[in-house]
Amino acid sequence: MENNVFYVTKHQKKLRCGITTGTCAAAAAKAAAELLLLGRHKESVLVHTPKGVDVQVPVFLSSQEEKKAEYWVVKDSGDDPDVTNHAKIFASVEKLGEGSHCPRGAFSSLKFPGIFLDGGFGVGRVTREGMEQEKGQAAINAVPREMVFKAVHEVCREAGYGGALLAMICVPEGKELAKRTFNPRLGIEGGISILGTSGMIEPMSEKAIIDTIELQIRQLQAQGEKKLLVTPGNYGQGYASSFLHLDLDKSVKCSNYIGETLDIAVACGMQDFLLVGNIGKLVKLAAGIMNTHSKVADGRREILAVHTVLSSGDAKLVPEIMKCINTEEILQLLDKNGIQQQVVKSLCGKIEEYVSYRVGDKMAAGVILFSEKFGYLGRTKKADGVLKLFGGGI
After folding, report:
1. Domain extent at residue 384
2. Where does 86-205 have alpha helices with state H?
3. Environment class of residue 349 by beta-carbon count within 10 Å: exposed (0-12), middle (13-18) or buried (19+)?
4. I need a surface site. Which of 76, 95, 110, 350 has the fewest CB within 10 A?
5. Are 318 and 249 members of one domain?
6. Among 70, 30, 35, which residue's Cα sits nearest to residue 54?
């Protein structure tokens, strides 16, 4: 970190990190709460990110009333600019009447009672089932929600305030920006999503990501490791740790580059390979798609539709599957029809076939699938033996 600017070194290049829309929302909400409850105007506020990094975020006053204050933050994506780079993220905090309950459609938290959160103009609304949020709620994901709740709660505690508050997130450019995202395809209408799992954005080119993966695996090789635990990202790591009880100290994140990671692992002499991840990403392996980025290929619905027919012999669900917006919704449909388990089993069989073809007989590679709603779903045959080597279990 230099002058509150965070850097990472990728492929011998020094790259500046950015902040997520979730961090922006938390910073603006904290600034608004401080002005409203403490009468304290700030030009920047400290936000605690899930990554474990405290970041000082510049904030700008939008408006101030007796029972409401609003600030905004400029989204800075660092050296890997995305669609929302330089967008203004607004957050207002408003005092509600005594004894107020959670406004309809807003978010609440058992950990932070009396603090409510909603999305206003430019923040998308969920219009279909199967998303993390309920139908009709704002597209503010779980980690950003927690960040906003925590940020406002910190101020409430300092001020000794125990009344009800409503934090409202708005993005004036959100409706236009959303047209350049996948939100319209996901059934999220009217704006962007407030996202982020770590609070920080690490800039990484495709080559830099693959080089980093290779470096990590070669470091493990130098330490004498012969087995490798791999996850696509934070969700996979969380599941591997919490539910499979695996040690993440020597794990590697592969992002979307599963094929390259398999190749590198083989080249480095790894004998056992365990991949743990969400079915929404890993389902693509059943079609031999080894780069799971949505810009490379999708086909999730098509893959699950084929395996529904293959495993059940019934094609009647195919039209419904093709209307689903994500894999979680498809899983719910399969579960409702009592065939989820057999479809996943069919899927795992094909995943094993493609992964085994990629690595040949040089490495035992197992894959474990989970979902946010259903948890553990299934595993390939070789996953059992590899999982035992890591000391984990299902």
Report:
1. 206-389
2. 142-159, 174-177, 183-186
3. middle
4. 110
5. yes
6. 30
